[in-house]
Amino acid sequence: MIREYGEEIWRNYNLLKAAVLNQEGARWTPHTSAWLWSIAAGRDVFPWLQAAFGTSVSRDQAQLPSQVLAVGFDPLAVGKLYNVPLVRLTPARDLLSRLPNVAAVRAFYAQESAAKGRPAKED
To answer: For the whole prediction, is pTM greater than 0.85?
Structure first.
């Protein structure tokens, strides 16, 4: 997600976690996490997570407050609900559509690490 949206995605995600999980006491699950990543990104990332990482995360199983679910993946609307300064992000690179499965994600990471002069496998 950082490679797709830059460091600001972390800011959005962490603000969401603090607001929704701490203030509302939402139940933390992989489904809920994927929903928060979708809000942080401002788009539905469930299909990408399912394909790229072979997960079974599902929008239907996210256990979040109904007001969050009602506004969908709009970071500005969710930010207004909790009075947190979420921002709408634009992708820095188009990686999500180019990495359709786990093998492609691993190959991308290996290629990027090699280009930066990092060892093939870190300890």
So the answer is: no
